[in-house]
Amino acid sequence: MTSDRTSSQASDVGLSRRNFLASSVAVGGGLVLSLSLSFSGSEAAVAEDFVPNAFIRIGRDGQVVLTMPYVEMGQGTYTSIPMLIAEELEVSLNHVRLEHAPANEKLYVNPMLGVQATGNSNALRGGWKPLRQAGATAKAMLIAAAAKRWGVDAKSCRAQDGEVFHAASGRRLKYGELTIEAAQAPIPKEVALKPPEEFRLIGTPAKRLDAAGKVNGTATYGIDVRPAGVKVATLAQSPVFGGKLKSVDDTAAKAIKGVRQIVRLDDAVAVVADHMGAAKKGLEALKIEWDGGDHAALSTQDVARELEQATLKTGAVAQNVGDADKAIANAATKVEATYQVPFLAHATMEPMNCTVHFRRNECEIWIGTQAIARVQAMAAKAAGLPPEKVIVHNHLLGGGFGRRLEADGAVRAVEIAKQLDGPVKVIWTREEDIQHDLYRPYWFDRLVAGLDKDGKPIAWNHRFAGSSVIARWLPPAFANGLDPDSTEGAIDLLYKFPNFHVEYVRMEPPGISTGFWRSVGPSHNVFVTESFVDELAAAAGQDAVVFRRALLDHNPRARAVLDLAAEKAGWSQPLPKGRGRGISLQNAFGSLLAQVAEVEVAKNGSVSVHRVTCAMDCGIVVNPNTVQAQLQSGIMYGVTAALYGEITLKNGRVEQTNFDTYQILRMNEAPTVDVHLINSSEPPGGIGETGTSAIVPAIANAIFAATGKRLRKMPIDVNQLKQPA
């Protein structure tokens, strides 16, 4: 990874002190500092029975314990967030220990989502200022306590390496020796945060704090939990969305050794056994009849046809500048296209699972979730209990990608556990996981643009139809027919168009629930917009980079990213026949990213992605190792979507069942990924999802460069690219 150039300076967008809550209380001789990411604002108060939200605790042994309001699902959050605390608190990273935050929607709210959840690549963005303030506040109180004991001015003391040091006398006190006095110290009204030039940790390549446990097997995921007496269950749900269980013959299943109980639900049946092997055998032995209901004849073609028709009608206006229709009517060149992207599954390495112990007046849950408070609320409803009677223990996630923002797996487990005596771990098979996902929506887009006589774009008109995940998941955020997820990447483009119009038509597929998928709205919109910009460049007879660059005079940051990607990829260098380079540029999740994909198209139409060059301006880089890893990860996820990703329906049923029919990118297919970061003083942007949304149009544009064929529908259809014999 390299850092190549410096972007323009910008003011630090900060948060005031009232945006976080700092509270202190002596608990067993320890100093407890609590900070809220809710931005609700409250002054510190001593309380004997203090329940912190996101908090720092410093024990008598000097150990710093950070209770995390976010979750770790492979994105490096459990390293980058502690780096913020450790930086301001002047401790080494290995002095910070983490604890999962409990469910508490009020105290642990994600400031950028308005709910307690980890997603949308915003954990670091949301915690950047409040968590540093928390560390700085703790440091100030420790210094004040030491100064009081020594009878000196606090300004003559400084913190370093977990100690307070008085230079004039050479005296030192470890943090653990100051906890009782520091707990009684007044909370400062203001604290100074370190300027970037004084950072010791932030910006350095820190090793992952969670890596050792994952390597030696001590890390605990939801699927690893084994409370005493736990049984294992697996289930079959109606293969048609909205269908019901008609009948089941469980005679053969009950005869299998280890099978303990068959649980029937309205639309599912579960086999409870001593272990997963017996549960699977029992499930296979069941003779089940289903009532498919209203959607038993649904096909992917039906969904696509409805969406296409929807784009012929007007929708909610997401953005309007000038008069696009008039400008297009008078344009020298008119360019039109339609695009489609399919349903996609999440296919996390760890399949859906949840362990539940249901008791008459209490329900205990062990799970790995991105939205613990949502799990608690929905599980409580299923259990018929008040939320405070549902205890949820969160764990590491073996992949999330948005799938574990949903609580359906926990609800299912509670429904099963209610019919049992004792705890039960419900594990979905891979087939059940893929065929009962909450899929990335199917989208249909219709675009028209106009160019003047010199090939300069003068108008852009974009209308698209598809499902709104936000409308289901967070109804208050869906207003006037629009939501920020569905439109991100389609509006506020980096390019400047004098006439610009975007409409969204909400159209829910019958019976199919959709969900957030890695890179959410931009995973759809960036493919469409960056592919269509490429079409405009071709219509104008211009190079794709030159065409884009001319539209970025007003945005030097974006132009710097574009230039760096093109330079490092050797954009103007010739390639062998059958190979091509394609570029994409996006502003998503608070980061600017350009990618150049180099692909090869074989005579049989198969596509190989050989190299991907990334240039990113993500603001201040906290951990460059994480940035590189997440860009690589996101790109692999996106390449999978471009080459193979598609969930299809036939007779109301999902046709894909496992990794043989829902193919994932293989190791031998993985491209080389080069990452180049631009030095920036802007606050940190998001990383985890950016690579996924940017790579798909880069690949599609590279295919056009190699073959002259424009692909407007994903995944890639090799038959369109196959050369005649």
From TrEMBL:
Keywords: Membrane, Transmembrane, Transmembrane helix
Any Pfam family the entry gives: MoCoBD_2
Domain Aldehyde oxidase/xanthine dehydrogenase a/b hammerhead: 216-294
Entry-linked SMART domains: Ald_Xan_dh_C
Gene Ontology MF terms: oxidoreductase activity
Parts of the chain that traverse the membrane: 20-39
Domain of life: Bacteria
Listed name of the protein: Isoquinoline 1-oxidoreductase, beta subunit
Taxonomic source organism: Bradyrhizobium erythrophlei
